[in-house]
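Worked example 2:
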Amino acid sequence: MKHQIARVELPPGRRILVTSDIHGQLGCLKGVLEKAQFSQEDILIIVGDMVEKGPDSLGTLRYVMRLCETHTVYPLMGNVDAYQVEMLGRWNALELYGCLRHRKSRWGSSLLAEMCGELGIRVRSPLDLLRGRAKIREAFQKELAFLQGLPTILETQHMIFVHGGLPGEPLAALEGKDAHPCLKNDAFLEKGLAFSKYVVVGHWPVTLYHERLDCSNPIVNRERKIISIDGGCSLKRTGQLNLFVIPCEGSEEFTFFSYDGLPLHTALDAQEESKTSSRILFTDNEIRILERGEEFSLVEHVRGGQRLWVFNGDIWKSGGKMHCDDCNDYRLPVQPGDRLSIVRETSRGYLVKKDGVAGWYTGRLEE
């Protein structure tokens, strides 16, 4: 896939809302837009990865397409979007069938599976995909053309929007080049780059930049002019869909809204913050089981050596080694009356979120 760079001059005085990595979570997209009171006076920029890994990729795609007709919206290509375009363009039935099975077991659904479901196509073998190819392409011409036409980079007067990141400046050097390194650019904030315009990216969940806290709020590096906004929606159980707010073109008075769709409860008891805490991330998650319990197990991180109790449902074995999902033993500072998003209820307390930060709460909650 080659770069398609869009350059627009945004009108003055209009609020600019930026989101990314919706990943088929239509409810979260509608929820965060409602919180921001999104209107036709606003400009919405979607920095890629609208589909896959969530429950309603097709619905999300169609909703964005409708918004493009009624509002000022600039959707961009993400690495997952690009993968779908390329896979459906080649239509290798064996490859697609393998992808469908993997996505169903890992995420529960996929864009192609939803297309097949809508048309009543039962996919039991690659042959079913071959037989249904013409029907799918005919029925979803508009959706596929929309995805294929997405630009990879959007440049405005003061900002650049790209899903993963950039190798540097100027953008002219990227014209006609392979777009994949900019769409899938892991841990972009750790590359040490700086820019003359703000570069707004998604792709890499911002919580992975924090060693101690599980925080899903956008990160703004004003010195290097990089803004990372992926809240881990769909990928992380503690994730959220972020909507970054730029009051108008050229303003740096940034704010944001977020939406996670989790049930909200009110804390009844105070709780002090942990003085120390441990955290394990999926990017380095090999563990040893020290003590197996009915609900939690005491584990030791192989590389770092930290020990903590991990929920058994977050532990698995692969390649003869034990691994765990993102986890921590951080206790949030809580005051009575605080509103907490409930991620999980356990015998050891609640895994909750407060102001975008996830941790544990052992007090009482108002029903």
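Helices lie at 26-35, 57-70, 79-90, 93-106, 111-119, 126-139, 141-148, 180-183. The CA atoms of residues 71 and 345 lie 40 Å apart.
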